[in-house]
Design brief:
It is built from 4 helices and 4 strands; from the N terminus they run E-H-E-H-E-H-E-H. A 4-stranded parallel beta sheet has the order 3-2-1-4, with helices on both faces. With about 100 residues, it is of the alpha/beta class.
């Protein structure tokens, strides 16, 4: 079974860096943000650099429509083995 981490707000800052940490550790990603074009750019960059599978979901998680999108993905056949809150990831990787 492939490991897949879901990272929200993955286009810049801490979310982007956390996505890189997972990818560098050979963990596939589902990245979520509002900007589909930037998601595609990061998808291509990570797949080329880290040789992982990157799935994208353009959604505004502050809206009902956006939360429904992510709910539908979580109910789909993608099995997430790493569903983590940013605080938990920071504690694990950055505060050792």
């Amino acid at each position: 079974m492939k490991e897949i981490a879901i990272i929200t707000v993955a286009l810049s800052g801490i979310g982007f860096e956390i996505a890189k940490l997972f990818a560098a550790n050979n963990i596939n990603l589902l990245i979520v943000s509002r900007d589909k074009e930037k998601l595609i750019k990061i998808k291509n960059e990570f797949e080329n650099q880290y040789k992982v599978d990157v799935y994208i979901l353009a959604a505004d998680l502050s809206s009902d429509t956006g939360t429904r999108k992510i709910h539908d993905v979580l109910k789909s056949n993608i099995i997430l083995t790493h569903l983590r809150h940013i605080k938990k990831v920071l504690e694990q990787y950055l505060y050792k």
